[in-house]
């Protein structure tokens, strides 16, 4: 399928806050309670529509583990949007946000849209971080804020789509240079390559003109 | 400087898209690879004829990465980010081995490195009633052909290979009675697998069958079990002796570094392991001798023609060498019929019979990390290290030089003004230098030129061993390059079973993308550092340790992008090449093998499942006592090992079924790494390593 733009996202935050679950909920609409540690980087993709335009989101899910930090840092570059995730039931994941933000600002391009996500909103009884605290942090650092639940899917769509909308608006305003791929934005192929009359294996191998998803 | 320029260029240009017709001749839907790649200068490849041919294999990444869609493959091919990709499910690799890869910085659209992992099982029936007189033509021998393919390169959704079965039954005269594939075979992987069996191997297997008067039967099973299985009852009118079977598991890891297109590397990753399996089946009677075979039936070799003794090592080495050779031939044949571009190097690690065999053709490398020390298990074959072989070939067959190149090596490129002067040179039979008076002929371009990574044969190719390149011509000429290349591997052996191993001892198997930047020593210390983050004692984290190590190695050589250049952590040039790395722990194989040998011993070459059917066999009677003896033996073995300081010793594994015994009768030998090919190569390797490091 053809798309107008491709946005690259990165999901960051402490280990165990639910980064992979958010991705899985968004791309596959399912929740996996027991998830293996992400090693290095995972990725997923989904098509969304903004302003009647097809936009493909390519999402890079990184390992939260300290041991992989030096590897995951290299993915900041070339991302148009970032979801910075903490766990509302674990105070320390909120405390580490400043560090994550510093890291992100240092290694990404300056226009990257960062969305702050307080995940696991379904576990309200075990809440350790108030909603207001998240809001305050976001305001202070100029981020968009949202509480989500990867389990119930609450706000998950919104989190990814709102980020995309913000990026899209920045493009309209001319903030992003869409021709520089390092900004994490790619203009879709002008014409879908599907008409080339390819079949079977040949199609699978040759159809990398960009249009498949 | 050149590198710097290239990286800058790639970053400005972004990833190439040769699919848009910039490379004329490549129509829509055919490959999108660039005909330029590591080791091969531009214009070397003729791609014009590939227009109408269909692809031999579709482009893919290693199956164990489980990249389900073309979309995901594309994500991994991000030249600007160069993500480090590792398997999603670590348990798909034996012993939770580590694997990581990254793409080049833009020199080719696709990642031209490929990798394969296979767990296989060789099964041989053992006749229990050895004394019963039904040998010769009624002798039944079964080759099981189960292939649990971790990397099947099959359909993305087809994680387990289908159960396939086809039988070749031969009449006593040796003519084929039936060949019946039980299932229709799928495209790609299955196609390749079956095409061997149907077209190629059947021919050969039939030959063996004729010679040995046997019945060959190989079903593909879904999963290998380390225990052997009782024979399926064979429909046969022949008298059937009591049979059981012995199964020998093996593990294969391979890396292939493609150049001038991805075709050959993908073909090798799809097929080489099948060929190796086939060749191992061929020598199964050497790998697993029948303990009950009555040797008196063997024809004594006459005195005037003594037979050479063949060990398991010889047989496995031969299987690898034969498979490599045939792989190259198959690619050569397929190049006529299909679109199959480029060439590739190959480095295969095979764990079988308690030993590790590394077969290497090219400049990928296997290095053991033992006790924190690197032990190279392969030799880098490059134009520079093989200069004598290549120049000798040129001297013997001057026609191969096309009148444009000289096999002589001059201390510096001679100029026209040097004509008639005495210059230092060396001929193909020399390693040192001598004087010669320069003639017109000597002004031709040298057959081998350049140094180190930039050395080239016929000014074109930078690798001298591997598969493919059949259609490659020297740049700006019609001189074929293939005659100077060879698929012959060098096979080195490490005795895993008798080595004193810890959880930190691994094999690092990687393409030159890693080794160009990271020395053996640095690689070993990087692995140890990574492993320390995921200690072996930590049960939860254990499974990540080798994957983490592989990632860190890739990271070390890929570095980070700084000011449009890929730089290492100590701000030196990082590689812009594809990088592929395996980190394989050695201890689990040793333990598995010990278990296997003690089981074999305990069962007297039999299996629990089948022992019931052979309860009357005199060979089974001593089970209990043997078992007891066995425990004692392995205990002794252990304590012996604990006491024994490293290095371990090499065993002569002549008799595969007496490994316990062998392990006890350790014959001290000096070199525990056996180099099957040439000692001088090893010396050169040492030199090479030191050069590398400096």
From TrEMBL, chain A:
SMART domains: RAB, RAN, RAS, RHO
CDD domains per the UniProt record, alphabetical: Rab2
NCBIfam families reported in the protein's UniProt record: small_GTP
Family that this chain belongs to: Belongs to the small GTPase superfamily. Rab family.
Matches recorded under PROSITE patterns: RAB, RAS, RHO
Location in the cell: Endomembrane system; Golgi apparatus
Residue span of region Disordered: 191-213
Comp. bias (Gly residues): 197-213
Keywords: ER-Golgi transport, Golgi apparatus, GTP-binding, Lipoprotein, Membrane, Nucleotide-binding, Prenylation, Protein transport, Transport
Name recorded for this polypeptide: Ras-related protein Rab-2A
Gene Ontology biological process terms, A to Z: protein transport; vesicle-mediated transport
Main location: membrane
GO cellular component annotations of the record: Golgi apparatus
Membrane topology: Lipid-anchor
GO molecular function per UniProt: GTP binding; GTPase activity
TrEMBL record, chain B:
Molecular function via GO: [pyruvate dehydrogenase (acetyl-transferring)]-phosphatase activity; metal ion binding
Stored CDD domains: PP2Cc (cd00143)
Keywords: Hydrolase, Metal-binding, Protein phosphatase
Listed GO CC annotations: mitochondrion
Any Pfam family the entry gives: PP2C
Region annotation (Disordered) ranges: 597-663
SUPFAM superfamilies the record matches: PP2C-like (SSF81606)
Residue ranges occupied by any PPM-type phosphatase domain in the UniProt entry: 232-586
Superkingdom in the source lineage: Eukaryota
Protein family: Belongs to the PP2C family.
The protein's name in its UniProt record: PPM-type phosphatase domain-containing protein
């Amino acid at each position: 399928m053809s798309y107008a733009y491709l946005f690259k996202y990165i999901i960051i935050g402490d280990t165990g806050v639910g980064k992979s679950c958010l991705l899985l909920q968004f791309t596959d609409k399912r929740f996996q309670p027991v998830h293996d540690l992400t090693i290095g980087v995972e990725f997923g993709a989904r098509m969304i529509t903004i302003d009647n335009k097809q936009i493909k989101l390519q999402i890079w899910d990184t390992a939260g583990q300290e041991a992989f930090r030096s590897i995951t840092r290299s993915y900041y570059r070339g991302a148009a949007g970032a979801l910075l995730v903490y766990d509302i039931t674990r105070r320390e994941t909120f405390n580490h946000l400043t560090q994550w933000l510093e890291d992100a600002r240092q290694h990404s391009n300056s226009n990257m849209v960062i969305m702050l996500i307080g995940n696991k909103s379904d576990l309200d009884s075990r809440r350790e971080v108030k909603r207001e605290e998240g809001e305050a942090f976001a305001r202070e650092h100029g981020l968009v804020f949202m509480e989500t639940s990867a389990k119930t899917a609450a706000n998950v769509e919104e989190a990814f789509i709102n980020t995309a909308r913000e990026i899209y608006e920045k493009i309209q305003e001319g903030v992003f240079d869409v021709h520089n791929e390092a900004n994490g934005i790619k203009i879709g192929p002008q014409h879908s390559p599907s008409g080339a009359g390819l079949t079977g294996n040949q199609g699978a191998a040759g159809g990398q003109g960009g249009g498949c998803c | 400087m050149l590198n710097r320029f290239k990286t800058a260029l790639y970053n400005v240009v972004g990833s190439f898209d040769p699919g848009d017709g910039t490379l004329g001749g490549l129509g829509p839907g055919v490959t999108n690879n660039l005909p330029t790649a590591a080791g091969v200068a531009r214009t070397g490849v003729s791609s014009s004829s590939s227009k109408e041919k269909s692809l031999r294999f579709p482009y893919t990444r290693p199956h164990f990465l489980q990249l389900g869609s073309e979309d995901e493959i594309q994500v991994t091919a991000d030249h600007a980010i160069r993500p480090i990709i590792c398997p999603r499910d670590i348990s798909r690799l034996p012993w939770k081995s580590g694997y990581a890869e990254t793409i080049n910085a833009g020199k080719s659209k696709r990642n031209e490195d490929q990798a394969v992992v296979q767990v296989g099982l060789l099964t041989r029936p053992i006749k229990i009633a050895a004394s019963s007189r039904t040998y010769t033509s009624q002798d039944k021998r079964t080759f099981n052909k189960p292939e649990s393919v971790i990397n099947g390169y099959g359909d993305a959704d087809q994680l387990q290979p289908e159960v396939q079965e086809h039988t070749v039954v031969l009449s006593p005269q040796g003519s084929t009675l039936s060949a019946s594939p039980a299932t229709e075979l799928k495209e790609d992987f299955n196609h390749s697998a079956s095409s061997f069996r149907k077209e190629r191997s059947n021919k050969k297997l039939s030959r063996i069958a004729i010679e040995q008067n046997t019945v060959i039967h190989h079903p593909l099973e879904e999963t290998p079990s380390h225990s052997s299985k009782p024979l399926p009852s064979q429909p046969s009118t022949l008298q059937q002796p009591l049979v059981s079977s012995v199964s020998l598991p093996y593990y294969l890891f391979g890396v292939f570094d493609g150049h001038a297109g991805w075709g050959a590397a993908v073909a090798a990753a799809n097929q080489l392991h099948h060929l190796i399996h086939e060749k191992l089946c061929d020598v199964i009677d050497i790998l697993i001798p029948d303990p009950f075979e009555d040797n008196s039936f063997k024809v004594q070799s006459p005195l005037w023609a003594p037979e050479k003794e063949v060990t398991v090592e010889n047989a496995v080495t031969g299987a690898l060498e034969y498979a490599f050779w045939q792989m190259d031939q198959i690619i050569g044949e397929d190049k006529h019929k299909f679109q199959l571009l480029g060439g590739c190097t190959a480095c295969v690690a095979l764990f079988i019979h308690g030993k590790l065999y590394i077969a290497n053709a090219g400049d990928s490398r296997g290095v053991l990390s033992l006790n924190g020390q690197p032990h190279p298990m392969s030799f880098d074959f490059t134009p520079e290290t093989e200069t004598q072989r290549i120049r000798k070939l040129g001297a013997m067959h001057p026609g191969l030089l096309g009148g444009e190149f000289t096999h002589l090596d001059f201390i510096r490129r001679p100029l026209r003004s040097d004509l008639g002067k005495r210059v230092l040179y060396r001929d193909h039979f020399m390693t040192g230098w001598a004087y010669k008076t320069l003639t017109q002929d000597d002004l031709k371009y040298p057959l081998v030129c350049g140094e180190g990574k930039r050395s080239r044969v016929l000014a074109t190719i930078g690798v001298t061993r591997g598969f493919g390149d059949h259609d490659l011509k020297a740049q700006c000429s019609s001189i074929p390059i293939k005659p100077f290349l060879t698929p012959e591997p060098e096979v080195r052996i490490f005795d895993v079973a008798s080595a004193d191993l810890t959880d930190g001892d691994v094999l690092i198997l990687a393409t030159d993308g890693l080794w160009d930047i990271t020395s053996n020593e640095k690689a070993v210390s990087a692995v140890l550092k990574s492993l320390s983050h995921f200690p072996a004692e930590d049960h939860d984290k254990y499974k990540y340790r080798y994957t983490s190590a592989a990632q860190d190695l890739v990271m070390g050589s890929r570095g980070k992008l700084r000011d449009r250049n890929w730089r290492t952590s100590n701000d030196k040039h990082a590689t812009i090449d594809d990088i592929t790395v395996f980190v394989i722990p050695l201890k689990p194989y040793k333990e598995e093998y010990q278990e296997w040998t003690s089981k074999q011993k305990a069962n007297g070459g039999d299996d629990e499942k089948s022992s019931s059917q052979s309860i009357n066999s005199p060979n089974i009677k001593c089970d209990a006592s043997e078992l007891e003896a066995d425990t004692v033996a392995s205990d002794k073995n252990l304590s012996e090992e604990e006491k024994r300081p490293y290095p371990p010793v090499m065993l002569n594994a002549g008799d595969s079924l007496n490994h316990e015994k062998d392990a006890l009768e350790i014959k001290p030998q000096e070199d525990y790494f056996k180099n099957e090919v040439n000692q001088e190569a090893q010396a050169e390797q040492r030199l090479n390593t030191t050069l590398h490091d400096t």
